[in-house]
Predict the structure of TetR/AcrR family transcriptional regulator.
Amino acid sequence: MAQKQSAPDATRRSERSRRAIYDAALALVVEVGYPKTTIEGIAARAGVGKQTIYRWWASKADVLLEAFLDLGERAARAAGASGRAAYALPDTGDLAADLKLVLRATVDELRDPAFEAPSRALAAEGVVNEEVGRRFVAELLEPSLRLYVDRLRSAQEAGHVRADVDPRIALELFVSPLAQRWLQRTGPLTHEYTDTLVDYALNGLAPR
Protein backbone atom coordinates (compact mmCIF):
# COMPACT_ATOMS: atom_id res chain seq x y z
CA MET A 1 0.00 0.00 0.00
CA ALA A 2 1.44 3.35 -1.04
CA GLN A 3 2.33 5.72 1.75
CA LYS A 4 0.36 8.93 1.91
CA GLN A 5 2.64 11.89 1.21
CA SER A 6 2.32 14.88 3.51
CA ALA A 7 1.37 18.20 1.99
CA PRO A 8 4.20 20.70 1.48
CA ASP A 9 4.66 23.09 4.39
CA ALA A 10 3.65 26.45 2.91
CA THR A 11 4.94 28.30 5.97
CA ARG A 12 8.44 26.91 5.61
CA ARG A 13 8.39 27.51 1.86
CA SER A 14 7.33 31.13 2.38
CA GLU A 15 10.03 31.66 4.98
CA ARG A 16 12.70 30.29 2.62
CA SER A 17 11.46 32.60 -0.13
CA ARG A 18 11.40 35.58 2.21
CA ARG A 19 14.94 34.87 3.37
CA ALA A 20 16.14 34.50 -0.22
CA ILE A 21 14.52 37.84 -1.12
CA TYR A 22 16.15 39.58 1.85
CA ASP A 23 19.57 38.21 0.91
CA ALA A 24 19.10 39.12 -2.75
CA ALA A 25 18.08 42.70 -1.99
CA LEU A 26 21.03 43.29 0.33
CA ALA A 27 23.50 41.71 -2.08
CA LEU A 28 22.30 43.69 -5.08
CA VAL A 29 22.46 47.02 -3.28
CA VAL A 30 26.09 46.31 -2.42
CA GLU A 31 26.96 45.06 -5.91
CA VAL A 32 25.12 47.44 -8.25
CA GLY A 33 23.86 50.24 -5.99
CA TYR A 34 20.35 51.19 -4.98
CA PRO A 35 19.31 53.00 -8.20
CA LYS A 36 20.10 49.91 -10.30
CA THR A 37 18.47 47.48 -7.88
CA THR A 38 15.01 46.50 -9.14
CA ILE A 39 12.19 44.22 -8.08
CA GLU A 40 12.88 42.14 -11.19
CA GLY A 41 16.54 41.85 -10.26
CA ILE A 42 15.74 40.88 -6.68
CA ALA A 43 13.25 38.26 -7.87
CA ALA A 44 15.72 36.77 -10.33
CA ARG A 45 18.50 36.67 -7.73
CA ALA A 46 16.19 35.10 -5.15
CA GLY A 47 14.74 32.56 -7.60
CA VAL A 48 11.14 33.70 -7.12
CA GLY A 49 8.54 35.36 -9.32
CA LYS A 50 8.26 39.12 -9.00
CA GLN A 51 4.59 38.70 -8.09
CA THR A 52 5.76 36.92 -4.96
CA ILE A 53 7.59 40.08 -3.97
CA TYR A 54 4.68 42.36 -4.82
CA ARG A 55 2.40 40.15 -2.73
CA TRP A 56 4.45 41.04 0.36
CA TRP A 57 5.93 44.47 -0.40
CA ALA A 58 4.88 47.56 -2.33
CA SER A 59 8.33 48.65 -3.48
CA LYS A 60 12.02 47.81 -3.48
CA ALA A 61 12.47 50.31 -0.63
CA ASP A 62 10.07 48.29 1.52
CA VAL A 63 11.98 45.10 0.69
CA LEU A 64 15.31 46.67 1.55
CA LEU A 65 14.07 48.19 4.81
CA GLU A 66 12.76 44.86 6.08
CA ALA A 67 15.88 43.08 4.85
CA PHE A 68 18.07 45.55 6.71
CA LEU A 69 16.03 45.22 9.91
CA ASP A 70 16.37 41.46 9.63
CA LEU A 71 20.13 41.83 9.10
CA GLY A 72 20.37 43.75 12.36
CA GLU A 73 18.35 41.13 14.22
CA ARG A 74 20.54 38.35 12.87
CA ALA A 75 23.66 40.23 13.93
CA ALA A 76 22.16 40.62 17.41
CA ARG A 77 21.41 36.91 17.66
CA ALA A 78 24.92 36.09 16.48
CA ALA A 79 26.25 38.29 19.29
CA GLY A 80 24.35 36.16 21.77
CA ALA A 81 21.37 38.40 22.54
CA SER A 82 17.79 38.65 21.42
CA GLY A 83 16.36 41.37 19.23
CA ARG A 84 18.25 44.66 19.30
CA ALA A 85 19.38 44.09 22.89
CA ALA A 86 22.85 43.16 21.63
CA TYR A 87 23.34 46.85 20.89
CA ALA A 88 22.64 48.01 24.45
CA LEU A 89 25.26 50.50 25.56
CA PRO A 90 27.65 49.21 28.21
CA ASP A 91 27.56 50.79 31.64
CA THR A 92 30.94 50.36 33.29
CA GLY A 93 30.66 53.55 35.29
CA ASP A 94 32.98 55.35 32.86
CA LEU A 95 30.68 57.26 30.51
CA ALA A 96 33.43 58.47 28.17
CA ALA A 97 34.89 54.98 27.75
CA ASP A 98 31.46 53.45 27.15
CA LEU A 99 30.51 56.03 24.51
CA LYS A 100 33.86 55.69 22.76
CA LEU A 101 33.51 51.91 22.62
CA VAL A 102 30.05 52.07 21.06
CA LEU A 103 30.93 54.81 18.58
CA ARG A 104 34.03 52.93 17.47
CA ALA A 105 31.83 49.90 16.78
CA THR A 106 29.46 52.17 14.85
CA VAL A 107 32.34 53.41 12.71
CA ASP A 108 33.36 49.82 11.96
CA GLU A 109 29.80 49.01 10.93
CA LEU A 110 29.47 52.08 8.71
CA ARG A 111 32.70 51.13 6.94
CA ASP A 112 31.39 47.62 6.24
CA PRO A 113 29.80 47.59 2.74
CA ALA A 114 27.24 45.01 3.86
CA PHE A 115 25.82 47.56 6.31
CA GLU A 116 26.92 50.82 4.71
CA ALA A 117 25.30 50.36 1.30
CA PRO A 118 21.75 49.57 2.50
CA SER A 119 22.02 52.18 5.27
CA ARG A 120 22.94 54.91 2.81
CA ALA A 121 20.27 53.80 0.33
CA LEU A 122 17.54 53.88 2.97
CA ALA A 123 18.68 57.23 4.34
CA ALA A 124 18.58 58.75 0.85
CA GLU A 125 15.25 57.15 -0.04
CA GLY A 126 13.76 58.38 3.21
CA VAL A 127 14.36 61.98 2.17
CA VAL A 128 12.06 61.69 -0.87
CA ASN A 129 9.74 58.91 0.31
CA GLU A 130 7.83 60.05 3.39
CA GLU A 131 6.64 56.60 4.41
CA VAL A 132 10.08 55.04 4.08
CA GLY A 133 11.56 57.99 5.96
CA ARG A 134 9.06 57.59 8.78
CA ARG A 135 9.76 53.87 9.11
CA PHE A 136 13.52 54.39 8.81
CA VAL A 137 13.45 56.78 11.76
CA ALA A 138 10.93 54.82 13.85
CA GLU A 139 12.34 51.33 13.31
CA LEU A 140 16.06 51.94 12.82
CA LEU A 141 17.14 55.26 14.29
CA GLU A 142 14.95 55.80 17.33
CA PRO A 143 15.62 52.40 18.99
CA SER A 144 19.34 53.12 18.82
CA LEU A 145 18.97 56.70 20.04
CA ARG A 146 16.90 55.52 23.01
CA LEU A 147 19.87 53.41 24.10
CA TYR A 148 22.03 56.54 24.25
CA VAL A 149 19.30 58.33 26.20
CA ASP A 150 19.16 55.48 28.72
CA ARG A 151 22.94 55.47 29.16
CA LEU A 152 23.08 59.25 29.66
CA ARG A 153 20.27 59.06 32.20
CA SER A 154 22.13 56.42 34.17
CA ALA A 155 25.15 58.75 34.12
CA GLN A 156 22.94 61.53 35.50
CA GLU A 157 21.78 59.28 38.30
CA ALA A 158 25.41 58.51 39.11
CA GLY A 159 26.25 62.23 39.19
CA HIS A 160 28.47 62.10 36.09
CA VAL A 161 26.21 64.36 34.00
CA ARG A 162 24.46 67.53 35.14
CA ALA A 163 20.88 66.96 36.27
CA ASP A 164 19.56 69.75 34.05
CA VAL A 165 20.91 68.19 30.83
CA ASP A 166 18.34 66.80 28.38
CA PRO A 167 19.80 63.42 27.31
CA ARG A 168 17.90 63.43 24.01
CA ILE A 169 19.58 66.69 23.01
CA ALA A 170 22.95 65.82 24.53
CA LEU A 171 23.36 62.67 22.45
CA GLU A 172 23.24 64.80 19.30
CA LEU A 173 26.59 66.32 20.28
CA PHE A 174 28.36 63.14 19.19
CA VAL A 175 25.81 61.19 17.12
CA SER A 176 24.81 63.98 14.73
CA PRO A 177 28.34 65.00 13.64
CA LEU A 178 29.15 61.36 12.93
CA ALA A 179 25.98 60.94 10.87
CA GLN A 180 26.68 64.15 8.98
CA ARG A 181 30.25 63.17 8.14
CA TRP A 182 29.06 59.76 6.98
CA LEU A 183 26.18 61.06 4.87
CA GLN A 184 28.07 63.95 3.27
CA ARG A 185 31.47 62.21 3.12
CA THR A 186 33.09 65.34 4.52
CA GLY A 187 35.94 63.45 6.16
CA PRO A 188 37.23 60.02 7.12
CA LEU A 189 35.37 57.87 9.65
CA THR A 190 37.93 56.85 12.24
CA HIS A 191 38.05 55.81 15.85
CA GLU A 192 40.12 58.89 16.58
CA TYR A 193 37.35 61.09 15.19
CA THR A 194 34.61 59.60 17.37
CA ASP A 195 36.88 59.63 20.45
CA THR A 196 37.36 63.36 19.86
CA LEU A 197 33.61 63.90 19.52
CA VAL A 198 33.06 62.30 22.91
CA ASP A 199 35.83 64.35 24.52
CA TYR A 200 34.45 67.60 23.11
CA ALA A 201 30.87 66.71 24.04
CA LEU A 202 31.66 65.75 27.63
CA ASN A 203 34.37 68.32 28.38
CA GLY A 204 33.26 71.30 26.31
CA LEU A 205 35.53 73.73 24.50
CA ALA A 206 36.41 76.12 27.30
CA PRO A 207 39.92 75.95 28.83
CA ARG A 208 40.15 73.61 31.80
